[in-house]
């Protein structure tokens, strides 16, 4: 450590010992004993914050009381890609049930001004090669992404049996029939041979449990249910309803970073209530030139996914095909390694090198704040003090300059303690009340709580055992996709799986993997597919083992949904992602498919009547 410190001080002017201490102090200020319990569910009196602003609330339809081969719950990116892989495998009878009024998932809900994807469009928009689509910009806007995803659903005929504005209320395994019965808030009772729950990680908006939450008498809404009827304007901004309004926004995460510049443009005055500053890197958005796509070899997108996920998960490589803010730390790691080698000094192990690169990167992020924000006291408050991947990195060229405007005030909430309370008139911080006409909650989504809480309904498996009861001490699965005692049920989520910062990559891997199993079950007349107890125990042991690799990093982090707000108890570790990282995980499941016997799954051939398959295929084609 002494060698490291001297070397860094000499070469880079960075003091790791001081930084470790500063990061610790800033983290400790923010740790709360309630951890995830500090947030409140949008139920009861708060349920209107979840209402869908984009649909006719009086919509009605006939009850469904029939049988399908595959029921997919969720019409976001996961449900769509799973549907695509199932269709490609020849499975015809697919029904999608979706809470929103159309396909799109997070891009259906999040229509706030400035909504766009921080991951480059060439990485984030799936199936670009097959769809022959060229995104308009390097970083695509929310409306463009939503329209594109819906075009995929149309191409793969997923609208045919899709039912929107429908919330599943329960799943019950019928042992005699070997079917799931799926009930909904529309009075449906659907029997399904196989069910896949495609739970988006940002499915349920949440509010901070700030005292007085319900007292505010002005107008308020959550960013994922933007009220354009009140603000005027649209996703491009121009919020002319706010010209004579004092607006407050609580939260400074990736969503606020995108919508604050638009609020700043339009509001008479904007107060930004901050608990922890985000890291704001360069965005550099620009139109994409279709010629950039010319000459790309088939399969380029999957290769690009692999490259991005490799770099962002910290695996050292010389090959950076992405070259943006996400991957910039790899360039720092490379240059550090080269400089060491040139000086004949030993190159630190990759973990140490990554940590040094992180210090350098975050110093750059903090320097950028000083350069952009004119008032040094405001700049100081906007500087993040934690390792970069403790929180979701943000990218914007407009957010920091917004704080130079006379009509924008940053209200730092008592050095990380959060908003004190909400009154009838506004928001109180450090005993001072900020009167507001409109209060916008940019407080994020329910990410780390148990799976069953987040889907919002119970699942009763064999012998009526509830998944919530089985997972009371944490999830138990094979590869995150299925659990013993819950046959023919597949899960797409972040639980016990390999999570890429490019969600499209992660979701595609899961969608393809589950489609492989379902297609084989359909094609080989396998009526029941169930994870064996032994395979599940082995995977849970692997989750526990690899969690240790992550634990030290997560413990040192400032609280966020990445580390369960600092609460790393066993249940949360079991509900967490696979600690071995996404690239090894995708290799594990690819090898599993290649092996051919579907090890760890108990397969029961119960009946001789296979469900319908599509196209002119005599049996489904298995995706590799
Ligand atoms: P986040 O969970 O990232 O942010 C919530 C914000 O609310 C934080 O700044 C948090 O502070 C603040 N907060 C919570 N409680 C209080 C309190 N009591 N007082 C004051 N502030 C409080 O939510 P977002 O909606 O911003 O982002 C969620 C995720 O959505 C992102 O991480 C990202 O994964 C995704 N997203 C993706 C985009 C894309 O490009 N694809 C674009 C936008 C979002 P603190 O930090 O202290 O907890």
From TrEMBL:
Cofactor(s) this protein requires: FAD
Record bears the keyword Oxidoreductase: yes
Sorted UniProt keywords: FAD, Flavoprotein, Monooxygenase, NADP, Oxidoreductase
Name this protein carries in UniProt: Flavin-containing monooxygenase
Organism: Sphingobium tyrosinilyticum
Lineage: Bacteria, Pseudomonadati, Pseudomonadota, Alphaproteobacteria, Sphingomonadales
GO molecular function annotation: monooxygenase activity
Record EC number: 1.14.13.-
Residue ranges of the region described as Disordered: 601-624
Family (UniProt): Belongs to the FAD-binding monooxygenase family.
């Amino acid at each position: 450590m002494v060698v490291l410190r001297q070397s860094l001080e000499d070469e880079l002017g960075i003091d790791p010992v001081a930084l470790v201490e500063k990061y610790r102090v800033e983290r400790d200020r923010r740790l709360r004993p309630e951890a995830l319990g500090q947030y409140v569910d949008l139920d009861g009196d708060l349920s209107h914050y979840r209402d869908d602003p984009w649909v006719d609330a009086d919509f009605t339809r006939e009850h469904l009381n029939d049988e399908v081969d595959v029921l997919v719950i969720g019409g976001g990116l996961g449900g769509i890609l799973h549907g695509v892989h199932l269709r490609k495998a020849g499975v015809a009878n697919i029904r999608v049930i979706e809470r929103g009024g159309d396909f799109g998932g997070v891009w259906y809900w999040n229509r706030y001004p400035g909504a766009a994807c921080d991951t480059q469009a060439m990485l984030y928009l799936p199936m670009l090669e097959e769809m022959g689509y060229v995104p308009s910009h390097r970083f695509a806007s929310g409306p463009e992404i939503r329209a594109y995803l819906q075009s995929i659903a149309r191409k793969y005929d997923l609208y045919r049996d899709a039912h929107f504005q429908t919330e599943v209320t329960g799943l019950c395994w019928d042992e005699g029939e070997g079917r799931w019965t799926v009930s909904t808030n529309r009075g449906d009772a659907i029997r399904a041979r196989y069910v896949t729950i495609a739970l988006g990680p940002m499915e349920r908006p949440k509010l901070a449990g700030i005292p007085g939450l319900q007292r505010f008498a002005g107008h308020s809404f959550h960013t994922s249910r933007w009220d354009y009827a009140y603000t005027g304007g649209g996703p491009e901004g121009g919020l002319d309803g706010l010209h004579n309004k004092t607006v407050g926004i609580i939260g400074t995460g990736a969503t606020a970073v995108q919508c604050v510049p638009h609020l700043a443009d339009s509001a008479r005055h904007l107060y930004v209530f901050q608990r922890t500053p985000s890291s704001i890197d360069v965005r550099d958005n620009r139109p994409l030139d279709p010629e950039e796509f010319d000459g790309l070899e088939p399969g380029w997108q999957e290769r690009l996914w692999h490259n991005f996920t490799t770099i962002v998960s910290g695996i050292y490589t010389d090959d950076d095909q992405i070259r943006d803010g996400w991957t910039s730390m790899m360039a720092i790691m490379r240059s550090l390694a080269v400089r060491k080698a040139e000086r004949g000094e030993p190159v630190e192990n990759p973990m140490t090198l990554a940590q040094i690169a992180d210090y350098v990167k975050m110093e750059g992020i903090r320097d950028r704040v000083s350069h952009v924000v004119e008032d040094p006291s405001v700049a100081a408050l906007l500087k993040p003090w934690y390792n970069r991947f403790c929180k979701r990195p943000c990218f914007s060229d407009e957010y920091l300059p917004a704080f130079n405007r006379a009509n924008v005030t940053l209200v730092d909430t008592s050095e990380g303690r959060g908003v004190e309370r909400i009154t009838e008139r506004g928001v109180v911080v450090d005993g001072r009340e900020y009167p507001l006409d409109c209060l916008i909650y940019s407080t994020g989504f329910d990410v780390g709580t148990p799976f069953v809480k987040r889907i919002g309904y119970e699942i009763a498996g064999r012998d009526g055992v509830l998944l919530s009861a089985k997972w009371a001490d944490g999830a138990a699965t094979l590869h995150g996709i299925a659990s013993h005692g819950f046959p023919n049920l597949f899960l797409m989520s972040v639980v016990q799986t390999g999570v890429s910062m490019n969600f499209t990559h992660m979701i595609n891997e899961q969608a393809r993997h589950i489609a492989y199993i379902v297609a084989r079950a359909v094609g080989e007349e396998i009526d029941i597919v169930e994870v064996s107890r032994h395979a599940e125990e082995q995977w849970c042991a692997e989750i526990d083992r690899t969690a240790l690799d992550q634990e030290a990093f997560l413990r040192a982090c400032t609280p966020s949904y990445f580390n369960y707000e600092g609460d790393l108890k066993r249940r949360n570790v079991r509900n967490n992602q696979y600690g071995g990282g996404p690239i090894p995980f995708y290799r594990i499941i690819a090898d599993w498919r290649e092996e051919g016997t579907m090890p760890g799954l108990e397969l029961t051939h119960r009946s001789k009547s296979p469900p319908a398959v599509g196209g002119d295929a005599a049996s489904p084609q298995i995706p590799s």
